[in-house]
Amino acid sequence: MKMSMQKISVLLAVTALWAGSAVAEDKPIVLGFPLGLSGANSITAPAVVQAMELAVSEINDAGGVLSRKLVIELADSASSAAGAQKAYDSLVYQKEVDAIISSEPSAARNAGLPIITRGKIPYIYTSFYEGRSCNKYQHIDGWVPQQVVSLMVDYFMKDQGAKTFFLVGNDYAFGRGLLGDTNKYVTEKGGTILGEEYNPIDASDWTAIVSKIRQANPDVIITSTAAGAPNVTFTKQLRAAGLTAKYGSYALDEGTAKTLGPDAEGIYLGGSYYTSINSEKNAGFLKALNDKFGTETKTPNELSVPQYDAIHLYALAAAKAGTTDTDAVVKALSEVTFDGPRGLVQMSKQRHAPLTMYLAQVNAQGDTTIIKSHPNVDPGEQCPNL
Amino acid sequence: MVPVLLDLITTAAILYIVSSGLLLVFGVMKLINFAHGGLMTLGGYAAVMATAMGLSPWIGIPLAAIFGGIVGLSMERVVVRSLYNRPLDAILATWGLSIIIGQIITLVFDRGVHFAEPPIRGVISILGEPYSTYRLILIAFALLLGVGLTLALRGTSLGLSTRAVIMNEDLARGLGINSGLVRSVTFTLGSGLAAVAGALITPLSSVDPNMGIAWLISAFMLVLVSGSSLYSLAVASIVLGGAQVVVSNYFGSVLGGMTIAALAAVILRIRPQGFSYE
Amino acid sequence: MSEANVKEVASTSLPRPHFGPLTRMVIVASIVLIGVGVAPLFMDAYSVNVLVRSMIYATIALTVDILWGYLGVLTFGQSAFFAAGAYATALVFTYGGFSAEYAFAALLIGIAVAVALAGLVAFLAFWHGASALYASVITLVLPIIVTQLLFSGGTYTGSSSGLTGFETIPLSSEAWFWAVGVWLVLLTAAAWMYTRSDAGRLLIAIRENEQRCKYLGLNTSNIKAAIFLICAAIGAIAGWMYANYTMVVAPEIAGFTFGTELLIWVALGGRGTLFGPVIGTIIIDYASAQLQGDFPFVWKLVIGIVFVSVIVALPRGILPLVSNAADWFRDRIGIAQPQQHSQLQLRQASRSGRNIIGVESRGPALVVSGVEKRFGSLEVLSGIDFEATYGEIVSLVGPNGAGKTTLMTCIADGSKRSGGTISIGGHDIAHRTPEECVRLGVGRKFQMANVFDSLTVGECLQIARARLDPLSKWQKSGVCSLPPSAMRVVRATGLHSDLNLPAQVLSHGKKQALELAMVLALEPKVILLDEPTAGLTKAERTLIGTILTELAKTEQLCILLVEHDLEFVREISSRVIVLHQGRIVLNGSVDEVVNSELVKSVYAGSGH
Questions:
Q1: Which of A10, A118, C282, C518 has the maximum number of C-beta atoms within 10 A of its C-beta?
Q2: pLDDT of residue C353
């Protein structure tokens, strides 16, 4: 008995010493950001980098986390699976980061997850996606189809009296997942789907699909095309054909809408962030961004703002856990709440976040106006086993 | 039926515009310019610059021709010239040049999508069916291009020299034709045409550093089945472009996306000379 | 007939112990293997991870090098086979779960799919008459189609997101490093042995001059297809390793971009060097993992610029530059170069008779009747009828453009004529390809000396014999058996002392003689010689003339000769056929032709 008491006290002393030294050294907390600096996601990457720099500087100015500073470690994932493997490997094994936060295509996330599992590191995924990605170390603060489909479809059917729909997407997991859910929801609500068409993700010619839309003559076209070129190419070819159906898009971002010029006018967008959100937090965020980057400021978007939120959520979780230890931080991540530009964000529903969702419309100047908002939209059953 | 027919014709016209520069280079130099896609991208950015400078969108087209021509000429001088006897290496080197063009554009303009004002918007009614005016204008452009190039080849002395080089280069050189000059001019012209095609498709395409690459394989396959004749290129554009529209319409876009490549490969297996009559 | 050494091999005693190339290879491979064994113990986990992947890529780059660098097939499509292996693995594990049996089954399925795809590509790309460009085009179409198929697989193949979350062979990174490292070393060593062997030289011969190989009776289409299938299988194995190691597959690994990236690595390392592509792939992939994050666009730009420069200025890549520098350094500090060439021995082949299908030694050797050849509306040959018997030397004369070479081509390649029949030794050649015509006993020598420039004289002769004496696939046999006729030419022209010289440094006359010897090595019954004396000195011409006359007599060969030199024709021919504007205008003895007014007017009319 005496012996074991002695053992425990030694153990305690050693632990205290170890913990103490960690604080004394004031080693910074390193956050790893695999990001598509090249490839498809590189279009939105500059805005994402600005958002993360802003979040990190805000936290550090306020004294850091656990009295340690946050440091950014960036790695190019080339928006691809192979690139993501390199990036995650380098962050986990070479830079030995404390957590990884990223907004990437699903293929890149999927490629990175096994490395996260092997490296046992807290991971926050910050992109909207097709749903049901589950991993012990993963949290997600972007939206999933369950949160946006009803918002968009209800608006067209109830407010606009639309009955017939035509769905167009790129042939990939996100496109098919989202439109599949849309199809189901429209049918449930008594609407008619006149067509559901997919183009390969690298295709630039939409002639056949535009022609089918013209023949079908739907009230509404809903698209889930890939970010960047496919969004633009489809919209231009649709507009060139002079089709006047209402047009809702799940994937068009404000920056890209601007480059479409007059072709983007009238497009309905669904998502969790638009610059025109009228809230104090958003105004503060936009001002801080502008103060920090001035004329270089990139339009924040559906990928950059969740990234900003996620860094704050990590800081809150680490503070709550009192350590950067993986299991404790992962547990705390499900519990903390951050009030950011998008409103309250808490990743409490099976690692996903109930969010305030917005329906917006692009106006003639290329800016977005918010038409509708639904607070606290539930992500539904995503990872029942976690 | 009318819109599908118009889709078919306009698709063929676009393919013809996109491929004619590549065909010219292949016909004269017997090498494949894999920088064709990169040069098209360059043309797209010429249209973006015209918009940014507040010029008429039509100005973007000659601007693209100048950009493409200058870049093409320097590529011919510095790189392509030393690869005349190594046609497969030329494919790789021009692919490398395409990467370089793409990366320089990225460094100058960033990776994002850019805005180019289309020369014309709206639709026009054809037999009671509204149809994109711009796509119809592209038919006229394709015809103009075909007739213009044919006249240039038949009517000018340089054109005559070019045709001689196409038929038999050794003989042409023996007859005192400066085949080096013919090659330089051809490559410059081919590159200029690629850039013009890039500018012409901006109203239908996204302008980003990869915009031309998507067109490269289709153009390449069309040229292979056409040999060196502008006439057979027109036939190939209608047949293969038409097949693409029909397949996409009735069997889905994924199959449509590989129609041109797969069909061309099969045609060449059965008839190595493709659509050219020899 | 006895096998007699005709060349004495000087058995020189070397001043210091000398290792054969095979021994040296084993030593080098062992050292590298030891390196692979200890490396993970000294490296951080990150480098181990990245290098496992780089080494997997290196195995597939190796196959690209064999296809492109050695065989001359520029392939954009190896990525498709890699994807076949990787997706087979991912699909089996995703839908069947992981077990050792399933892992093995996945490997077999991957290889089977890759080989089936490769068979389809080979069928399309390597048929008789397909150009190198067409073959490349097919390899370019393959990854495009495979990628679209993966996309259209929807949720089953994971579409653009690929598949992940499946369990795989539970090995640590270090264990993977050892497994992949050993596989890479063994594969490289095997490829090295193969490419240096006699059969490996054949790949270079096909790259340099496929047409000559066909006219040596070699079915190059089958050889290319076989190599292509093997490379596809190796690609599938690499894909299997990739899926097992990374636990994720995505459609981009099937794509044309990855296929091109492989070419870039091989080109930078040095095509046709094996070690260059392997080292190049590992270095570039490792470096891009380190640098790309900091300068994504500039890094790609740099790779692009270096790639173009290497293609233009250093077609053989960077490794040869390094090894040249090493040689130069060795010279400077006075270390002798290891001896490069093992001596080749020539032997007399026993007359095999394996050559000809049912030899008809009686009757005419060659019967041409009613042969026509048209190019579109242009008639090059019409109504050609003649016969030639064994032991006869028939000369074809006529002005330029009379159709002499075209006629030769029609006899050696059944697919060339537009009409009429040709039979060799009583067999109709029908639409036989050149290599099948060789089996009927046709040997053809081209107008321009047509040999394999970058091979040695001895290797050229070995390849000429490849049809009858199968080449060793793992070593240099050091032996070449030649029939007496070929041996006679080699000895008379002094080629036997040039066996280890590259063919390109030979004089024009010796090249002609070498090609003649190569044709005779086929043991043909009917020989077609297109201007065998063009550009030769008077002495060489006389020598060739004597040899031909002798051969016709002793070997009972039927020799058909195209000649401009009428004096030479007169000296050796037993009969002369005069062609003019695609028709036979005279078929008679030498004297008849020489004295014919018609022939004089034909030549005068054409300005000759």
A1: C518
A2: 52
- Contact present, C68 and C263 (Cβ < 8 Å): yes
Distance from CA of A199 to the nearest CA of C (A): 10
Structure-derived torsion over alpha carbons of residues C74, C80, C84, C86, reported in degrees to the nearest 10: 100
Residue ranges in chain A modelled with pLDDT below 70: 1-25
In eight-state DSSP terms, residue A360 is: E
Give pTM, 2 decimals.
0.86
User: What is the CATH topology of the domain spanning C364-440+526-608?
Assistant: Rossmann fold (3.40.50)
What residues does C375 pair with on adjacent strands? C378
Residue with structure tokens 């189609």? Answer: C145
Closest partner residue to C161 (CB to CB) among A82, A90, A173 is A173
Under 8 Å between Cβ of C519 and C559: no
pLDDT, tens digit, 9 for 90 and up, residues A261-298:
888 999 999 999 999 999 999 999 999 999 999 998 99
Of the candidates C23, C374, B8, the one whose C-alpha atom is nearest the C-alpha of residue A211 is B8
Which chain B residues have a beta carbon less than 8 Å from that of A204? 205-206, 211, 214-215
DSSP classification of residue A65: B
Average pLDDT, chain C: 85
Residue B170, in any domain of the structure:
yes
Number of helical H runs and strand E runs in chain B: 11, 2
B138: DSSP letter = H
pLDDT band at C359 (very low <50, low <70, confident <90, very high): low
Using the predicted structure, report yes or no on whether residue C282 has a pLDDT greater than 90.
yes
Please report whether residue B192 resides in a domain. Answer: yes
Q: Helix, strand or coil for residue A384?
A: coil
Widest Cα–Cα separation across chain A:
88
Q: How many residues does chain C have?
A: 608
The domain containing residue B50 runs over which residues? Answer: 2-212
Q: Are C402 and C580 in contact (CB under 8 A)?
A: yes
Distances (CA, A) of C454 to C26, C195, C381, C498: 27, 14, 36, 14
pLDDT at C379 > cutoff 90: no
CB neighbour list of residue B78: distance below 8 Å, 6 or more residues apart: none
Reported as half-sphere exposure (CB side, CA atoms, 13 A), residue B116 has a value of 34
Of C144, C152, C311, the CB nearest to B96: C311
List residues of A whose CB lies inside 8 A of any B CB: 38, 42-43, 45-46, 171, 197-200, 202-205, 207-209, 211-212, 214-215, 228-233, 236-237, 239-242, 255-256, 258-262
Tokens 């042939």 belong to A171
For chain C, which residues make up each domain, given as ranges?
21-253, 364-440+526-608, 442-470+479-523
Q: Would residue B63 count as lying in a domain?
A: yes
What are the phi and psi torsion angles at B182 (to 5°)?
-60, -45
Query: Using a CB-CB distance cutoff of 8 angstroms, which residues of chain A are in contact with residue B113?
Result: 43, 228-229, 232, 256, 259
CA distance C211 to C221: 11
Q: What is the pLDDT of residues C25-58, one digit of tens each?
A: 888 889 889 988 888 888 888 888 889 999 999 9
pLDDT tens sequence across B115-142: 888 888 888 888 888 888 999 999 999 9
Q: Are strands A220-224 and A164-170 parallel, antiparallel or unpaired?
A: parallel
Q: Write down all domains in chain A, each with its CATH number in brackets.
A: 10-143+277-353 (3.40.50.2300), 145-271 (3.40.50.2300)
- What is the token pair recorded at A374? 């639904």
CB-nearest partner of C311 from B93, B107, B265: B93
Give the whole-angstrom CA distance, residue C473 versus residue C193: 8
**Cα–Cα distance for residue pair A44/B205, rounded to 1 Å:** 19
Whole-angstrom distance, CA of residue C318 vs CA of residue C315: 9
Chain B residue with CA closest to C138: the answer is: B265
Given a cut of 80, whether residue C354 has pLDDT beyond it is: no
What's the structural domain count of chain B? 1
